[in-house]
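Researcher: We're teaching a course module on how sequence relates to structure. For the next exercise, students receive a sequence and then see the predicted structure as tokens, so they can try to spot secondary structure elements on their own. Here is the exercise chain.
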Amino acid sequence: MTNALLTTTLANAKAENRAALISYLPAGFPTIPGAAKAVQAVIDGGADVVEIGLPHSDPVLDGATIQTADDIALRNGIRIKDVLATVRAVTEANPTVPILVMTYWNPVDRYGQARFAADLAAAGGVGCILPDLPVEEADEWLAAAAEHGLATVFVVAPSSQDQRLALITAKGTGFVYAAAVMGVTGTRTQVGAMAEDLVERTRRTTDLPVCVGLGVSNAEQAAEVAAFADGVIVGSAFVQRILDAPSEDAGYEAVRELAAELAQGVRKR
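Model: And here is the predicted structure for the students to work with:
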């Protein structure tokens, strides 16, 4: 699969006059084999696109919930080969669902940029979200990604000035990840008044879909964001459902139910 699947999926959601539901779960959580089951559950619930996180020992942009999940995954012994195996298992079972890897830059750089791009594409992934890779330093990665048909999604924030937005969106492919609030990931009671303004400013610089994340945790918030964004990204709320569950199976059912609620929310523009 390539970036074309991601583009088509987001275009199909737009044609249905709704936002896409994009879910995030880290590989290796709650267990290495259980991660694919958790991702399958959110797909079964109605997720259009899935981001599989590559756990990192210093997840500086993530809040306590995802940090906890990353710590569990690392204690489970997660390696990049296991992340790629999770991608492969999910894509083989769901060939029409785009799967991206969300990762900090250091693991990719250490693994080898060309090698990572080739191995991700071979596993069926459609691209990467790289929140801490400066676009000025991204040319080698972008070339490797383009060679294998992978999307490169960059993150913009409410603090991003218009000139900076134009630079970032000119380099990115697939979609633009708009952080709804300043700060780390995590569920919030409000999704951030700055998000709509950020989406509007970003759209002035690009024709790429603009998808909003950081803070959405329920159907009402999903509907609120879906009113102005092309996609609604949810991560911490899924992770928290698994953390709170009394058993692994109960966790999978909990994220499936949440995905179904959110899938209804993104259709209530």
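Model: If you want an answer key for the exercise: The first helix runs from residue 3 to 15. The chain is about 50% helix and 15% strand.
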